[in-house]
Structure formats: C-alpha cells, structure tokens
Amino acid sequence: MPATNPITHRLRQGCQTMAFPDGPPPALPDRHGGALRVEAAKCAEGCNACVPVCPTQAITREPGKPVALDLGKCIFCAACVEACPTKAITQTGNHQMAVRRREDLLLGKSGGEELRLAVALDEKLKKLFGRSLRLRQVSAGGCNACESDVNVLGTIGWDLSRFGIQFVASPRHADGLLITGAVSRNMELALRKTYDAVPSPKIVIAVGACAIAGGPFIGHPQVLNGASSVVPVDLFIPGCPPHPLTILDGLLRLLGRLD
User: Least crowded by CB within 10 Å, which of 21, 66, 181, 249?
Assistant: First the structure.
C-alpha cells in the first residue's frame, strides 16, 4: 500500500486548535468542578462542619458570621462541598477564576459571594503587551502540576502563540514572569534575581494555590507562602493545578482580549 503524501495527510487533519475564545470553551472534566461558590444565607447557625476538613485553612468562620472561603488557599479538593449539610458551598463548573487583586479571591466575609474577575492592564501596558507578550516561567518550588498545565497551552490544541503570548528562556528577553510553586527559601534569591533581570515595565502572574498562598505547604518554615512575599503580583490564577482553560482565560483577560 503506497504511503500517504504528507501534505495530503496534513490537509485531512484540518485545524486541531480549539476555537476559544471565538467559540464556546471546552467543557471542564467532571472531576474538576471549577470555581467554588459560597451562599452565606444557607449557612446553618453554629455549623462549622466545613472548617476542620479543609487541609489548607482556606475556610474560616467567625462566631455569629457566615463562612468565608479563600480561593487563593483552596486546593479544590471539594472536601468542604461534601461536608456542608446545607450546600452553602458548591462547585460551579466555571473555569473563570483569575483576579487582579489578592483580596478578590476571598468569598464570603467582606469579599462577597462572587469572584471579581480580572480586568485588563491599563492602556499604556495594554498597548505594550496586548499583541506581543513574552513570559519567563519560574518554578519556585512547584510539584510540576501547574507547570504541566502551563506547558499544555503550547500544544496544537491550545496554540498559545496565536495570541502573541510566548515563553522565553531569558528574563532579559521577557515582559514579565509566570510563577508556579510555593516559593521555597532555596528559590527566593533566584526569583528576586530573575525579577530584577526583566526590563521595566513588567508584569508578574502567580499560577496555582502554591504561588498564591503556599498551597498544601502553607505555613511550612521552608516556604514563603507564595510569590507576593518576594515580588509584586499583577494576576492571580487559583487552582491546584488550574485547568489550562483557566490559565488562558486569565492571560487573555489581563491583555484585554476578553469581555
């Protein structure tokens, strides 16, 4: 049987890249669950069932007040969802979770019940980075889960480069940093030097629970509980790890490419 002509084979393959954001986003897998929602009005008086099951102290409840959930600390294990007898905490299946301010990841308490999704950079920075953004990725003590989902964005199905976003080897060629990992003490100096090597103006993106707040290692003496302890952060993308769609959504929101 004669071999298929490579060009003919390629044409038969067609376009393998998803249509997002012009088309509907791909569905999240059932086990992912998406962002969490807190409905404070459903909290039973005196109930603290969800608090002790959280492995990262992301859930708190002060006496006489409704439950509060910090999505920056959350590792999305859904233990709180299963433990809550009134279903005050639920999974939404929504991939949109990136925010510009750390406090916007606080649900309940003073943070409200809905996420305040990330807004775009100011006009000057959007003009600089909106069509061409080069990032240096720094794994500051990560487990390789967030790093793997960041790498997925470079595959043919996602094709991050079609948005003008690329990863570069040198911070001197970068417009900013994308940081994963809880920032171990061994990586503190390396992260500072990498940040200093990026020419100004520059941006910093924290990806995953570890980079935001320390993740499952929060409070350990050998980690610094996230990137904000070392460098200023412009975008927080929660998850453990975040789905590639969540990361892409956050990047495009930062550049003003999504409404």
Answer: 21
3-state secondary structure of 34: coil
79 in helix, strand or coil? helix
Domain covering 123-254, topology: Rossmann fold (3.40.50)
pLDDT, tens digit only, all 259 positions of the chain? 456 788 887 777 777 788 889 888 888 888 889 999 998 888 888 888 999 999 999 999 888 888 899 999 999 999 999 999 999 999 999 999 999 999 999 998 655 567 899 999 999 999 999 889 999 999 999 999 999 999 999 999 899 999 999 999 999 999 999 999 999 999 999 999 999 999 999 999 999 999 999 999 999 999 999 999 999 999 999 999 999 999 999 999 999 998 6
Check if the beta carbon of residue 129 is closer than 8 Å to that of residue 253: no
The C-alpha atoms of residue 64 and residue 67 are separated, in whole angstroms, by 10
Between CA 255 and CA 154 the distance in angstroms is 18
β-pair partners for 91: 36
Tokens of 135: 């990032």
Question: Among residues 78, 73, 56, 64, which one has the least CA distance to residue 107?
Answer: 73
Three-state secondary structure call for residue 165:
strand
Q: Which residues pair with 60 in a beta bridge?
A: 68
The Cα 56–Cα 78 span in angstroms is: 12
**Interatomic CA distance for residues 159 and 17, integer angstroms:** 7
Per-residue tokens: 27:
């569905």
Tokens of residue 247, six digits: 């990361």
Residue 208 · residue 179 · CB < 8 Å: no
